Amino acid sequence: MLTSLANIPVDVIASSGGFLIEPGIGLMIWTLLVFGVTMVLLSKLAFPRISDALGRRQQAIEESIDTAERARTEADLLLAEYRERLKEARAQADEIVQRARQAAEAHEHEAKDRSQEILAEASARAQRDIEVATKRALADLRKEVADLTIMATEKVTRKTLTEEDQRRLVEQALGELDFSGISSTSGASQN
């Protein structure tokens, strides 16, 4: 069914008019006239509406872009403000931690000083108590030595001594005894 155009003679193809259209002047005028009328109608009716729609669309896009730019600018400002507040909060937190450390160190030094004061007071009190106890013990020892000396003298002499004799004997016995070793030993043990 398909035949090659090369085998068909040119006059047969031209006479049938099915393959090529010969342009006529009248057809061209009518085509230009219809085209002109169509352009006028389109320019009066369709193009303004299309132009308005495109303008509105362009304006909406520009407004959206402007809104997006404003939102972006506001977001950047909020982000900068947030970062600044975060920096301030960190600085405040660091300051609070530093103050807490300083307060803890101050309390620690204060507690150490107070404990040293208490220890010094306790040591001084203990020193005084030891000295008082040593003096009391020496006084008791002197009294006991004096009593023993009087008893021993009375037994040896088999008579009762007068008060003046007792005093003289006690002073003599106490003079012979060396209590300095006892008090220096207690003083050395205290240190």
Note the main attributes of this structure:
191 residues; mainly alpha; 86% helix
**Count of helical regions:** 4
SSE order in H/E notation? HHHH
Helix content: over 70%
Alpha carbon gap, first and last residue: 139 Å
- The radius of gyration over CA amounts to 65 Å
Low-confidence spans: pLDDT under 50, at least 5 residues? none
What average pLDDT do the residues reach?
82
- Overall tally of domains: 1
Notes on the protein architecture:
With about 190 residues, the chain is an all-alpha fold. The chain has one domain (about 35-180). About 85% of the residues lie in helices and about 0% in strands. The chain has four helices and no strands. The protein has helices at about 10-15, 25-155, 165-175, 180-190. The chain is rod-shaped, with a radius of gyration of 65 Å. The protein starts with 9 loop residues before the first helix and ends with a helix. The mean pLDDT is about 80.
Short description:
The protein is mostly helical and 191 residues long.
What topology does this entry show?
Blueprint: H1 10-16, H2 25-157, H3 163-176, H4 180-190
Helix pairs in contact: 2-3, 2-4
